[in-house]
Specification:
Layout lengths: L1 H8 L1 H54 L3 H29 L10 E4 H15 L4 E5 L6 E4 L1 H17 L6 E8 L3 E8 L6 H4 L11 H6 L6 H11 L3 E7 L3 E9 L8
Parallel strand pairs: 2-4
Antiparallel strand pairs: 1-3, 4-5, 5-7, 6-7
Helix pairs in contact: 1-2, 2-3, 4-5, 5-8
This protein binds adenosine-5'-diphosphate.
Adenosine-5'-diphosphate binds next to α5 and α8.
Enzyme class: transferase
EC number: 2.7.13.3
Organism: Corticicoccus populi
Amino acid sequence: FSERLKFKTGASETDYMVESFNNMMDSLEGSYNQQKQFVEDASHELRTPLQIIQGHLKLISRWGKNDPKVLDESLDISIDELHRINKLVEELLILTKNEEKVAESLDEVNVNREIESRVNSLKKVHPDYTFDINLDGDEIYLKTATHHFEQMLTIFLDNAVKYDQQNKYIEISTESGKDTFDIIIKDHGIGIPSEDIENVFNRFYRVDKSRSRQQGGNGLGLSIAKKLVENYNGSVWVESEKGAFTKVIVRFPRIINRMRK
Ligand code: ADP
């Protein structure tokens, strides 16, 4: 193939074309492998709850008819696992959708008000936690679909709660820069080992698989949140110290940032 091209086009042009072709094939292969990995991981995640349900249905059919305790327990566990499957499927759909880059209708979300509202609802569910809110005096607006913004905040805040069961102390702040603003969520929980930090935004990545599963996690939360943040031209990163704290920093460009009446 390259010899025929060389004949037609001359050496340097051919080399260039062959190189571009090879690069294209590499990148296609890379994306194919990523897709393959994604399907494998998703199937693996689905298999666990399905196997649990299957096991409990067998228990019910053998002993459940005569033993109400077995019946109740197995039904409860099966329903929990079904919820897990439901959540997983919904999250997989979000990840695979070729996003709503510009969502149907964008809202001007008042960032500080939205944070207050999310934190107030969390306080009701977790009265034993301290949520220390420190919001920038400026009114910050972000052009985004409100439900995307809520979803993103919920993922970070839920993680802070999930992984800070010792101190139950979560700080939430906003800071305005010249062209950007930051939303910072800091918990004082188990932290993330330094070697894992670069991977936590990867799909299905969990530092401690069994701990995460116990708490209803499937390792997709942060990858979804990152996708949502990037949809609106933001960036997100994590700073952490194992056993001390985890800080999530989300940075958006200040597209709309003005004082309102
Ligand atoms: P999960 O559903 O497992 O929480 P995520 O994608 O939200 O999945 O997070 C990926 C992994 O990153 C988690 O399993 C956990 O190990 C780690 N992680 C995320 N947030 C925190 C946090 N605030 N503190 C400590 N570890 C965290």
